[in-house]
Amino acid sequence: MTEGRLITIEGIDGSGKTTLAAALARTLHEQDGINTHLLREPGGVVLAEKIRDLVKDPSLHTGARAEALLYAAARAQLVEQAVLPLLAAGRWVLLDRYIDSSLAYQGAARGLGVKEVLAVNSFATGGLSPDRTLLLDIEPLEARKRLAKRGEETDRLEQEDNSFFEDVAGAYRQLAEREPDRFTVLDATSTREQLLDEARAALVALMPDSD
Fold first, then answer.
1. CA-CA distance, 133 to 80, in Å (whole number)?
2. Contact at 8 Å (CB) between 56 and 153?
3. What gap in Å lies between CA 211 and CA 87, rounded to an integer?
4. How many CB atoms lie within 10 A of CB 63?
5. Burial environment of residue 105 by CB neighbours within 10 A (0 to 12, 13 to 18, 19 or more)
6. How many other CB atoms are there within 10 angstroms of residue 185's CB atom?
7. pTM given for the model
8. Which of 57, 165, 182, 183 reaches 20 to 30 Å from 10, CA-CA?
9. Which of 155, 174, 152 is nearest to 100 (CA)?
10. pLDDT in tens, 10-30
11. CA-to-CA distance for 208 and 211, rounded, in angstroms?
């Protein structure tokens, strides 16, 4: 049976994570024959989707600690209910956001502390770590231009100012520098084709019979 793998895609809002995740899941299935299951965070299962509605609602005031705990709770449910069973069944799980999002957004940008937020999320997930993390790197101003072009109503986090996203982007880069074996940093301004090719290339070593 194929060994289950957890692949996470990270980046600030507007970096193109969701678009890449969908394309990569399709390519892994069609080109490489890998049974891939795409999930998003927060969300993916009923309870986590309800929490998603809460944390993204711009009409609600949510304190930094409450925000961090809500994300961790959604993550705990997703891991227990979906991710672990899929991995045990030999599936590849492609996850749009995971713990690194909380480290960057709540740990760094909200000032709660990366170590402190990591401790909460390690408990929430039972210490489950990704086999590979793809980080879409982009300057915040460019990402915000992309969000504006969508013409969609922004959620609570997307309404933060540019300095907030500068802090998030910087934290992501630091996380990638600390764990170069897990992270692959991708230029989010590349074409979709280039991004997809580079993302797949970063996963080749994890594929069956890659030796």
1. 20
2. no
3. 21
4. 9
5. buried
6. 19
7. 0.94
8. 57
9. 174
10. 999 999 999 999 999 999 999
11. 8
